[in-house]
Automatic annotation (TrEMBL):
<keyword id="KW-0464">Manganese</keyword>
<feature type="domain" description="Cytosol aminopeptidase">
    <location>
        <begin position="308"/>
        <end position="315"/>
    </location>
</feature>
<keyword id="KW-0645">Protease</keyword>
<comment type="similarity">
    <text>Belongs to the peptidase M17 family.</text>
</comment>
<dbReference type="InterPro" id="IPR011356">
    <property type="entry name" value="Leucine_aapep/pepB"/>
</dbReference>
<dbReference type="InterPro" id="IPR000819">
    <property type="entry name" value="Peptidase_M17_C"/>
</dbReference>
<dbReference type="InterPro" id="IPR043472">
    <property type="entry name" value="Macro_dom-like"/>
</dbReference>
<protein>
    <submittedName>
        <fullName>Leucyl aminopeptidase</fullName>
    </submittedName>
</protein>
<dbReference type="GO" id="GO:0004177">
    <property type="term" value="F:aminopeptidase activity"/>
</dbReference>
<keyword id="KW-0031">Aminopeptidase</keyword>
<keyword id="KW-0378">Hydrolase</keyword>
<dbReference type="Pfam" id="PF00883">
    <property type="entry name" value="Peptidase_M17"/>
</dbReference>
<dbReference type="Pfam" id="PF21337">
    <property type="entry name" value="Peptidase_M17_N_1"/>
</dbReference>
<dbReference type="InterPro" id="IPR048816">
    <property type="entry name" value="Peptidase_M17_N_1"/>
</dbReference>
Length: 461
């Protein structure tokens, strides 16, 4: 699928983007023919509406797109993209109606609205093409859209075709594209390489667990991305009910998101030394499944009491985070579809994140607004540390009681990096439950675009 804006100067129909308060003024400045057509068509400038304008011979000469009210635009992240289904196929350019500061966001939304998942069913929809607006970096917008399409495709693919081996293959394909180095430690070799919890979680499946390790870049600050790659999560012996298992193909959403972010970094040529670590497993049920009340010893040497085999994501991340910390990077970022508690706290649209670094948090929050990629900071609340200390072992993977589940999971993960590490953890949903402008129902990239835009400030690039 081509993910690109048309070059500036391409012949195209002009688009006038009109807010609800602008329609009457604009129409009053047009010919009687156009003014009458706008009036009889009932076009009021609402978000999601469009109107084709034809010349006296019936040929299209322009289009109007509704931009709604200022209040309505706060509720629709990509307001222009909402009108794409109403436009006739063709090539268009935005002539007026959008603040220059919002042009990149709306151009990106246009591309994102053209996504469709076609692996199992052809989609013959012919989307309208947008000419690169003035002042917009077409290459940058295309890179952002490509990253999102990659993430969506990975998450949308069912576990039957996206197990640990297939996730490794996708990572290898990305590495080949960007000339990155990549290795994988698989199966029993995980034990020989002191990655015991990744092995334990994945050993019940006949699809071998693995640790995927990608390196790119030779100069600049070191950043390590760690993505949860649980390709399907049955819950293990603490089996999920069917209603909770239905979306578990998306439990590798953290891995999909860090691969999308890695594409942004590599395709943009960011001057960093990038490392991507993905513990890829399937949490299955068999005679050798790990059990409730088992005590595991992690790569770091910390012992973990298993009080719920369905809290497996933090176990595989723990070994990967320890490995990340050993490389002494300037920044470690983990991304995971980790807890239902995060969804209860902020819903599916916001990407909650944790960090002790106030400067990094400020950079991220500002970038999130620019990039239309909302995030929300949650605390590493240290008084809750006692909740993850069971007494019989160093740590508890699933504290009882249900309180502060996202925070206790984040505190658990923080135990596996050193106190000197700059660390950020994202507890994402990775799924768009209801279609919205530029965001079809299905797999979603969350927080990665904001983080990409914030990295230059965070790392003094």
């Amino acid at each position: 699928m081509t993910v690109a804006l048309a070059p500036a100067g391409t012949k195209a129909l002009p688009i006038h983007v009109l807010g609800s308060e602008d329609v009457a003024l604009w129409a009053g400045q047009q010919s009687d023919r156009i003014r009458t057509w706008v009036d009889v068509s009932g076009f009021k400038g609402a978000i999601g509406t469009a109107l084709m304008i034809h010349d006296a011979e019936g040929h299209p000469e322009a289009a109007l797109i509704g931009y709604g009210t200022q209040a309505a635009r706060k509720r629709d992240r990509f307001a222009v993209a909402a009108a794409l289904p109403k436009l006739a196929p063709g090539t268009y350019r935005i002539d007026s109606g959008i603040d220059p500061h919002h042009l990149e966001q709306e151009a990106l939304g246009w591309l994102l609205a053209c996504y469709s998942f076609t692996r199992y069913r052809e989609n013959s929809v012919d989307h309208a093409t947008l000419v690169t607006p003035g002042g917009v970096d077409a290459q940058r917008v295309s890179i952002l859209a490509e990253a999102e399409f990659l993430t969506r495709d990975l998450i949308n693919t069912p576990a039957s075709d996206m197990g640990p081996a297939e996730l490794e293959a996708a990572a290898r394909g990305l590495a080949e594209t960007h000339k990155a180095k990549i290795t994988a430690i698989t199966g029993e070799a995980l034990l020989k390489n002191n990655l015991p919890m990744i092995h334990t979680v994945g050993r019940a499946s006949d699809r071998a667990p693995r640790l995927i390790d990608m390196h790119w870049g030779t100069s600049g600050p070191k950043i390590t991305l760690v993505g949860k790659g649980v390709c399907f999560d049955t819950g293990g012996l603490n089996l999920k009910p069917g209603s909770s298992m239905g979306l578990m193909k998306k439990d590798m959403g953290g891995a999909a998101n860090v691969l999308g972010l890695a594409h942004m970094i590599m395709a943009s040529g960011l001057q960093v030394r990038l490392r991507v670590l993905i513990p890829a497993v399937e949490n299955s049920v068999s005679a050798n499944s790990f059990r409730p009340q088992d005590i595991l010893t992690s790569r770091k040497g910390l012992t973990v009491e298993i009080n719920n085999t369905d809290a497996e994501g933090r176990l595989v991340l723990a070994d990967a985070l320890t490995l990340a910390s050993e490389g002494e990077p300037d920044l470690i970022v983990s991304m995971a579809t980790l807890t239902g508690a995060a969804r209860v706290a902020v819903g599916p649209d916001l990407a909650p994140y944790f960090t002790d670094d106030d400067v990094a948090a400020t950079s991220l929050d500002l970038a999130a607004r620019r990039m239309a990629d909302p995030v929300w900071r949650l605390p590493f609340h240290e008084p809750y540390e006692a909740m993850i200390e069971p007494g019989i072992a160093d740590l508890d993977n699933a504290p009882s009681g249900g309180f502060a589940g996202s925070i206790t999971a984040a505190l658990f993960l923080r135990r596996f990096v050193s106190e000197q590490d700059r660390y950020m953890h994202f507890d994402i949903y990775g799924w768009q439950p209801v279609a919205a402008p530029g965001r079809p129902k299905g797999g979603a990239l969350q927080g990665a675009r904001a983080l990409f835009a914030a990295l230059p400030d965070m790392l003094d690039l």
